[in-house]
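Why should sequence recovery work at all? Because a backbone constrains its sequence more than one might expect. Tight turns favour small or flexible residues, buried strands favour hydrophobic ones, and helices have their own preferences. The token representation captures these environments compactly. In the example below, the structure is given first.
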């Protein structure tokens, strides 16, 4: 089990480093442009939109649920209206200029809340939205833990036993002098 954990960390470290690089690029870009990736689903009497937004230095995940239509005609009119504003069910990607208010939220940019909106489209319609906001710097710090830990242990370990202290060449064949760099052992 210990071997599996070590192997898992070794595989997870490069992935974490790559995600850290992507996070830093998105963080810098989010100060200028807000990007939104959304997935839309339409059911018989309800709809849902799941979206991830990067803007103003914040990563936001939102889930919008619309329901409680009085009749099927009201729902059909609402869906025709929603579809006129976007293409179809499925994935969509959009961007707009950033608002320029970095770090807004409850505590240092963190926020988790629920909105309930009422739309009077024909008859009563309720829309519920769940929000989760996390600042990009927090995601960057979390993703940097594994690569920094790996670099620290590599630095603290030093050269392996039986290897050159300068270049790391294996000295089993020539224990007196390193054939690679000429260092005296």
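From this structural description, the recovered sequence reads:
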């Amino acid at each position: 089990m210990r071997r599996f954990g070590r192997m898992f960390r070794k595989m997870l470290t490069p992935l974490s480093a790559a995600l850290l690089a992507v996070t830093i690029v998105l963080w810098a870009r989010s100060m200028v442009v807000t990007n939104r990736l959304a997935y839309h689903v339409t059911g018989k009497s309800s709809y849902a939109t799941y979206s991830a937004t990067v803007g103003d230095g914040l990563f936001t995940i939102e889930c919008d649920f619309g329901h409680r239509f009085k009749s099927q005609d009201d729902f059909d009119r609402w869906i025709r209206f929603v579809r006129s504003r976007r293409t179809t069910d499925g994935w969509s990607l959009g961007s707009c200029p950033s608002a320029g208010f970095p770090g807004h939220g409850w505590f240092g940019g963190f926020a988790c809340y629920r909105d309930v909106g009422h739309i009077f489209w024909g008859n009563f319609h309720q829309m519920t939205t769940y929000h989760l906001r996390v600042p990009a710097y927090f995601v960057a710090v979390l993703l940097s833990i594994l690569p920094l830990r790996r670099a620290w242990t590599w630095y603290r370990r030093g050269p392996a036993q039986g290897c050159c202290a300068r270049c790391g060449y294996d000295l089993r064949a020539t224990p007196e002098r390193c054939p690679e760099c000429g260092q005296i052992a």
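A few observations help interpret the result. Residues 2-140 form one domain.
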